[in-house]
Amino acid sequence: MKINRVQELWKNHQFAIGGWLSIPSGFSAEIMAHQGWDVLTIDMQHGLVNASEMVSMLTAISTTNVTPFVRVPWLEPGIIMKVLDSGSYGVICPMINTPEDAERFVSYCRYAPQGTRSFGPSRAVLYAGEDYSQQANQTVLTLAMIETQKALDNLDQIVSVERLDAVFVGPSDLGLSLGYVPGNHEEPVLLEAIETILKTAKSHGKKTGIYTLTPEYAKRMIKLGFDYVVISSDARLMVAQAKQVLADFRLQKIK
């Protein structure tokens, strides 16, 4: 079976650098995949991506060695099964608030006897290899999003769930849940919560990931101890570069 590069990085005590895909396009996904990320996550929660577009994006990512992840819209077995059958090597699930949520999430991602995932790996076999069904339970990664006060209250029990591979911090929703404006990732209470998530997950042997907006913030999180950082998104990077090009142009004198 094709290796999961994120899993290999973690085994070697290295961190993974991730990009984020919110634009529903195989072409833009392919462009992003050729830039050297370790992993790209297709966002089906807040991005505009539907199931058909997801498949074309996964296919585009497959032109490289980048590992494909998908963030599903919600904790629902049907869509989790579909993204795995389509070839995603990691599932990021939003709003995991209780250990029961985490147990259901992990179960939906694993074939029996470890879980309740239905069999029919369609494109996953084309991507991963004919032995997919024998190796999927050990290769596909499960990442539970911690992004609410309720999740913080239940954190120790959530990260105790067997076969949950990692937690993934959603700073905007977490900040909102804590009473702050989303997008400001510098609030001291939010930073304290992020450190609590990191330390608690590590104490239970779980890997940790976080969404960041800038390379500088991502580096801070790596130095703090995170194993996986996402830096911005395709749409945000496009906006930032376009603004910079126009600003640079307007500052120059035209002779």
Overall description:
This protein has 255 residues and is an alpha/beta fold. It has one domain (5-251): Phosphoenolpyruvate-binding domains (TIM Barrel, Alpha-Beta Barrel). Helix content is 47%, strand content 16%. The protein has 13 helices and eight strands. The protein has helices at 5-11, 26-33, 51-61, 77-85, 99-109, 122-128, 132-139, 149-153, 155-158, 171-177, 188-203, 215-224, 234-251; strands at 16-21, 39-43, 67-71, 90-93, 141-146, 166-169, 207-212, 228-231. Strands 1-2-3-4-5-6-7-8 form an eight-stranded parallel barrel, surrounded by eight helices. β7, α12 and β8 form a beta-alpha-beta unit. The protein starts with a helix and ends with a helix. The mean pLDDT is 97.
Throw out a few tags for this protein.
alpha/beta; eight-stranded parallel β-barrel; 16% strand; TIM Barrel; 255 residues; 8 strands; 13 helices; globular
What layout of secondary structure does this protein have?
Elements: H1 5-11, E1 16-21, H2 26-33, E2 39-43, H3 51-61, E3 67-71, H4 77-85, E4 90-93, H5 99-109, H6 122-128, H7 132-139, E5 141-146, H8 149-153, H9 155-158, E6 166-169, H10 171-177, H11 188-203, E7 207-212, H12 215-224, E8 228-231, H13 234-251
Parallel strand pairs: 1-2, 1-8, 2-3, 3-4, 4-5, 5-6, 6-7, 7-8
Helix pairs in contact: 2-3
